[in-house]
Amino acid sequence: MEKQTSGIHHISAIVGHPQENVDFYAGVLGLRLVKKTVNFDDPGTYHLYFGDEAGSPGTIITFFPWANGRKGRIGDGQVGVTTYVVPIGSLEAWKNRLESFQISFTETERFGEKYLQFDDPHGLHLEVVEREAGENSVWKFDGITSEMAIKGFGGSILYSSNPTGTANLLEDHMGLTEIDANEEYIRYQSRADIGNIIDVKMASGDRGMMGVGTVHHIAWRANDDDDLRAWQEHLYQKGFGVTEVKDRNYFHSIYFKEHGGILFEMATDSPGFMIDENRDELGSELKLPSQYESYRDQLTETLLPIEVRKLSK
C-alpha cells in the first residue's frame, strides 16, 4: 500500500439562500458555524463552514450559497448521500427533533446499521447513523447535548459513472479497505474514527448536474504539506490529472477527477480554522483572504446578512 488517507476532511456543496442554510445546519442539526468567509474564486458568494467546536477534520461541511442559483440534479459523478454519525442510543432523539421541525425522514437499513434519511431545504440528501467510534461533540445548541450531538461525518455514498473504477481507486491508491458488499453497494473503511465509511453504489444511473442541492466535491485528509505533495506525485503517477497546490487559508489542497466523474480533493489537516479567530469566536466575523481585504466594504454590502439563531418549533 503506497498511500493511505485517514478519511474525509470535508465535503463542499452548493445550496440556496444562505440564511436557510445557516438555519438548517446550525439551527436544526446543531453544528457550529466555524468560519464565515467568501468563495476565493467568486468573492461575491459566501463560503460557510460548519463542524464541531473546533472545526476538526472529518466534521466540516462547507457551502457555496447561491440565493437564486439554478437547481442541480443529484446523480452519477457526485456524492449522493452525506452521512453523519451520532452517539449510540440517540436515534430516537433525532427522530423527535426532525419531527419537531416538520422535517420528513425515512428509516432504512444498510449493512446491518439503521439510518434516518432526509433532505436539507435545498435538496441535499443526508442521513444519520449511530456508531460507537468517534468522540462525542462538546458543542451544545438549542437542546442538542453531547449525548445526541453530531460527532462528524460517518461517511458518504458515492454515485459513480464507473463504480468499479471508483472502488479500485479507493482501495488500490487511497488505502481504504473493503469490509462488506452486497448487490447494491461495496463498503470501504479508512483508519479514522469518523469520516471513515464509504459506500460505493454499484449501479450507474443518470449523470448528475451541478447546481443548488448538489455536492461540489469531497475532500480527503492529507497530514501536512509534505504529505500533500507526496499525494500529488502519487496520483500523477497513477494517471490522474492533478492540480497545482491551492492555498485555501485554512488548509492547502489539490484536486482531481476520479474515474467515475466525482471531483476529489486532498486537503491538509493544518493550519486549521483558528489562524484568524480564537476558538471562542469562530464564525463570528466575516474573514477575507488578503487579496480581498481591500474590498471588504463592497463585499459586506453585497453579501446577504446571516445569523445563527434558535428556531421556533
TrEMBL record:
Which N-terminal stretch is annotated as signal sequence? none
* Protein's recorded name: Ring-cleaving dioxygenase
The VOC domain sits at 7-131, 152-269
Question: SUPFAM superfamilies given for it?
Answer: Glyoxalase/Bleomycin resistance protein/Dihydroxybiphenyl dioxygenase (SSF54593)
Query: Tell me, what is one Gene Ontology molecular-function annotation carried by this entry?
Result: dioxygenase activity
What Gene3D superfamilies does the record tag this protein with?
Answer: 2,3-Dihydroxybiphenyl 1,2-Dioxygenase, domain 1
Q: Does the keyword Methyltransferase apply?
A: no
Alphabetically ordered keywords of this record? Dioxygenase, Oxidoreductase
